[in-house]
Amino acid sequence: MRRMRSGVLALALLLVLLGVWELYVDTGGADPLILPAPHAIAQSLYDDRALLWSNFLVTAEEVLLGILVAAVAALVIASAMHFFITLRRASYPLLIASQTVPIPMLAPVLVLWLGFGLLPKLVVVALVSFFSIVVTTMAGFAAVDPELLKLMRTFDASRLRTFWSVELPSALPSVFTGAKIAVIVAVIGAVFAEWSGANAGLGYLFEQSIPQLLTARAYASVVVLSVFAMALFALLTLAERLSLPWAYQPTGDSSR
Amino acid sequence: MIEAPPQEPRELDGTGGVRVELVSRTFAAKRGPIQALSGMSLHAGDREIVAVVGPSGCGKTTLLELICGLQRPDSGVVACAPAALMPQRDLLLPWLSAIDNAALALRARGVKREGARALAAPWLVRFGLAGFEQARPAALSGGMRQRVSFLRSMLAGKPVLALDEPFAALDAITRGEMQSWLGRVLSTEPRTVVLVTHDVEEAVLIADRVVVMSPRPGRAVAEVPVALARPRRRTDPEVTALREQVYTALEVPQ
């Protein structure tokens, strides 16, 4: 009930904001070529649906493959860093440094290096989404109750057994948290990658529409991108609830 | 994660007993070293139940970790048969069913999943958990969780059980029931038990012998044998008399 009401409230606020925007443009507050009214964007979403869809498929492939690569790499690297303290000490500063490289500058270099195809986009998306998954996964490993690890040692469990039975399952909710942050930035990464050299994709479509003064189409591609990112986020939330139901069950008196 | 200290070299004395001889243990802390134990001695014969009571922070948990080989003494001797810990909080894994939680120690030893379940299943029935095999910990009551936790440690197959205030987190009524239950289980499934507790009544109800510890740095200051028949009731005059005796030993100025 409560969630439904908050959904209604969010929708009401959105409608109010769209109404203000519509009024502002319709009453001459802004040139429709610079800021199209919501109705014009809606019109473009319908008229250009085939064009938007074909370009959406390109961007969606870049984002989904990039996140998949990032998630697998992040899990492997976080686990390795958890097992080997020397590796963690050596690589953690480099990992942070890798995130300080501005992606808009890195993307053109990658395109020069790897060509105009899918690969440079995939690398950029993976680079921007990788970090949050590694950091949250490592935090998940670190948050395992030390008493539980002691218990496993009195059961003569091997290091690897403790990892599979206790540490990895404990860290899974944190992996999802990282992935949910990652999907949002992944879409931004894909757009930067497309701007650096592409012949398809929603970022490319946006870039092509502006100089042709097809501003409504440019905004329509932004709407599709946003909805895509939100859908990915919602999908991950759903997947988390289905695959880790225990993380949501109410807990009783003496459990944590 | 925590670093594993080297395992204490275990000296088996042929039986399932526990021998702690004049052990001292000091920890480094921010405000200087803290001496947890100083000249602590404790003996438990094979299949003897020894309760250890003492004021808060007297090094009882350190004692259990020494017995379980999780720590090494700075000086003194710890010689005991392999021991499994049962922690104060149940620490059940929330994603596993009751039966898989109970079988965790078996799985840790490398028993296959189906084999471990087959070994654990009859015990769940004996422990009054029939019908709850597939329930996750969140669906179990506090007392049920503690029984699964005890079963998990028992199925580790070690001759010694180190119980760290096993019922301290339960409400008073459940705690009373669990104390009677543990007494019954140990009379049919004898094990060497070192039971650390704050609860003097619990110690007298369950143990063959009660060891009283001093405030930190902890050492044994008194020993009260409990030569009473089982089952014991908390209202038995002998039980209340022994309880008073242990309380008196706790109150002696050190």
Protein described:
The complex is a heterodimer of chains A (256) and B (254). Chain A has a single domain, classed as Orthogonal Bundle (MetI-like fold). Helix content of chain A is 80%, strand content 0%. Chain A has 10 helices and no strands. The longest helix of chain A is centred in the last third of the chain and has 37 residues. The radius of gyration of chain A is 23 Å and the shape is globular. The two termini of chain A are 27 Å apart. Chain B is α/β, with parallel strands linked by helices. Chain B folds into 2 domains: 165 residues, 3-Layer(aba) Sandwich (Rossmann fold); 66 residues. Chain B has 8 helices and 9 strands. A 6-stranded mixed β-sheet of chain B has the order 5-6-7-3-8-9, with helices on both faces. Chain B has a 3-stranded antiparallel β-sheet with strand order 2-1-4. In chain B, helix 5 runs parallel beside helix 6 and helix 7 packs across helix 8. The radius of gyration of chain B is 18 Å and the shape is globular. Chains A and B meet through helix 7 and helix 8 of A and strand 5, helix 3 and helix 5 of B.
Write a concise keyword list for the protein shown above:
heterodimer; A: 256 residues; mainly alpha; 80% helix; B: 254 residues; alpha/beta; Rossmann fold; 33% helix; globular
Secondary-structure topology with pairs:
The complex is a heterodimer of chains A (256) and B (254).
Chain A: H1 2-26, H2 38-47, H3 49-83, H4 85-100, H5 103-114, H6 118-142, H7 146-154, H8 159-195, H9 202-209, H10 215-243
Chain B: E1 18-27, E2 34-44, E3 49-53, H1 60-67, E4 75-80, E5 83-86, H2 98-102, H3 104-108, H4 113-126, H5 142-154, E6 160-164, H6 172-188, E7 192-197, H7 200-206, E8 209-213, E9 220-225, H8 237-251
Parallel strand pairs in B: 3-7, 3-8, 5-6, 6-7
Antiparallel strand pairs in B: 1-2, 1-4, 8-9
Helix pairs in contact in B: 5-6, 7-8
